[in-house]
Amino acid sequence: xxxxxxxxxxxxxxxxxxxxxxxxxxxxxxxxxxxxxxxxxxxxxxxxxxxxxxxxxxxxxxxxxxxxxxxxxxxxxxxxxxxxxxxxxxxxxxxxxxxxxxxxxxxxxxxxxxxxxxxxxxxxxxxxxxxxxxxxxxx
Amino acid sequence: xxxxxxxxxxxxxxxxxxxxxxxxxxxxxxxxxxxxxxxxxxxxxxxxxxxxxxxxxxxxxxxxxxxxxxxxxxxxxxxxxxxxxxxxxxxxxxxxxxxxxxxxxxxxxxxxxxxxxxxxxxxxxxxxxxxxxxxxxxxxxxxxxxxxxxxxxxxxxxxxxxxxxxxxxxxxxxxxxx
Lengths: 139, 178
Description:
The complex is a heterodimer.
Chain A: E1 3-4, H1 6-15, H2 22-30, E2 38-40, E3 43-47, H3 48-61, H4 67-75, H5 79-86, H6 94-99, E4 100-106, E5 109-114, H7 119-138
Antiparallel strand pairs in A: 1-3, 2-3, 4-5
Chain B: E1 2-6, E2 10-12, E3 16-24, E4 32-40, E5 45-47, E6 61-65, E7 71-79, E8 86-98, E9 101-114, H1 126-133, H2 141-145, E10 154-155, H3 164-169, H4 174-177
Parallel strand pairs in B: 2-9
Antiparallel strand pairs in B: 1-3, 3-7, 4-6, 4-8, 5-7, 8-9
């Protein structure tokens, strides 16, 4: 597992498009939003798990939840579930909310496409996925 | 009448965040028509607009009109450039209009600026942190630029009441079986 400094974590998240400062990473660590740092040699470091926590926190905070509510939710989840939430981080960045469009096929399938995708192609993709879901249902 | 506390009594000289929690009990506010608060920071420290969303002018004076319940005001402060290490003090000025008369109060909050390497050893006051964590952050860029536009998903026509996967994998009667 990789280890990171607070600065490296900040830079990684910023490269992924997150609007976050080093001071926020430090503060979230101090108030216990992420698990305690791990020891590597004589240094205290962040790991990939911490990175997953930060991604999940940033994702959930976009939905308007308070830090207390996010903390409570994350405490009840496994690290794999936290990683899954974090993977959706870019979907909730405001720029992406404006430039992407989500189509709901049914309760199990949602397709998010860039608004630049031509309408005809969009319909083709939606139809294909709908057919796959239908075939699966009939089997 | 007024209680003010910092989340951290020590703060990083560079890229540090801290919060001031100001509590005013409603019992002391019964006849107060208007309350004004202003936080004065030492050089190098900056502040965001109050997290509660109370009206605040460009000088940082927060106004609360006809307060009728407990006030738990949270102000976020931070360091951006490098601030000299050592003891500093934040000053909180409070004035209120009570039965037509203006009353004033002043509080000092001591703070120690420490090297950023000490970040991990800095302790946070759990009471202040609990208040901060229940706040909705009104200072996120989205709120400064305008409301978030959440585009609702468009919906395809569905012939089923249950989703295909739910239909396929649902086990009816399992509750009864248990």
